[in-house]
Design brief:
12 helices, 11 strands, 30% helix, disordered N terminus
């Protein structure tokens, strides 16, 4: 079965009930230094050599390419290549027609025949713990108007005079509009191109690094990047920007506990906190194996959402999926 996640193809073995191969490292080692070990781990865990390997550009190197080929992997693709490196693709059937389902964190499902919800993600505004304006944010908490003025460029056609910006803030977002940026911007009625401030390259986890290093830096991120999924607490160098919420909601947020935040967001709809769906979509009729996989996702698989900082599908969302 083939699944595409953010334009990267993963081949799921028939024994998909087994836990996915993954590892957690201390610190922030270079992606390229981890590739060969993960190739070995996949082969050892599953007892077979995968035909395909597709990763983001951080893993790209000539040594990694040669290592994958030496192990018998036929198709080795990095989504961004370096120097004279070239992707190796020998199979003829790696194309859209051979993708069974695609994972999208978006509400744009044009030309899809099947949409299946698997979870939801929430986005919160953040800063570093040493941000010099945290005191000001605490005095004047962020409501919808202040969030728009803080994070987004004013529309030239908007005649409303903005409130004077009292925050000495530098906004950080990623270079290419990610699902998080799209969710945050669209929730407040903007296109991601309207986000103010500095753009950084790489994954959204680097937004945390940016606001930690800049004591004027503010950004936004997913729960699973803001909280430590092992301790279930807010990461030590991250602060949540105070939102203008009901007292009982603010008390939950102040506890800085991931599970309590998830419980709150699953039971209450809070206008200031974007919550978006994650869906599998397909453009063709699904075979029996793929449907069996999705049935597992909808039942036993839901147990993994909270573990990794995601919200479960609500019942109404599940009942209303597009067949």
């Amino acid at each position: 079965m083939r699944i595409v996640i953010e334009n990267t193809t993963f081949v799921v073995l028939r024994d998909w009930r087994r836990p996915a191969t993954f590892a957690v490292w201390m610190g922030n080692p270079a992606d390229s230094s981890l590739y060969q070990g993960m190739v070995d781990k996949v082969i050892n865990d599953y007892g077979r050599v995968p035909r395909d390997s597709a990763t983001d550009g951080g893993y790209a190197s000539k040594a990694n390419m040669e290592y994958a080929l030496s192990k018998g992997i036929r198709n080795v693709v990095f989504n961004k290549i370096v120097g004279s490196l070239r992707n190796v693709v020998s199979s003829k059937n790696i194309n859209a027609e051979n993708v069974d389902i695609q994972l999208l964190a978006s509400d744009e499902y044009a030309d899809t025949k099947f949409t299946f919800p698997i979870g939801r993600y929430a986005v919160l505004p953040i800063s570093g713990k040493n941000n010099t304006s945290l005191g000001e944010f605490g005095k004047k908490k962020l409501n919808s108007k202040r969030i728009k003025e803080l994070f987004f460029e004013k529309d030239l056609l908007d005649d409303d005079e903005p409130e004077k910006n009292k925050y000495n803030a530098t906004i950080y977002s990623v270079v290419n509009a990610s699902c998080t940026a799209n969710a945050f911007a669209s929730h407040f009625g903007f296109d991601p191109s309207k986000l103010k401030g500095r753009k950084i390259s790489g994954d959204e986890i680097y937004l945390n690094n940016a606001v930690q290093k800049d004591n004027t830096g503010v950004s936004f991120n997913n729960l699973n990047y803001i909280y430590d999924i092992d301790s279930r607490q807010l990461k030590s160098n991250i602060a949540l920007l105070p939102l203008d919420l009901k007292k009982e909601y603010s008390e939950v947020m102040a506890e800085a506990n991931l599970d309590k935040v998830i419980e709150l967001l699953e039971t209450k709809s809070i206008d200031l906190i974007p919550v978006e769906e994650i869906n599998f979509v397909a453009t063709h009729t699904l075979d029996a194996q793929t449907r069996q996989f999705l049935q597992w996702v909808a039942t036993d698989g839901q147990a993994f959402n909270h573990q990794y900082g995601f919200l479960n599908v609500n019942k109404q969302q599940m009942l209303g999926y597009k067949k």
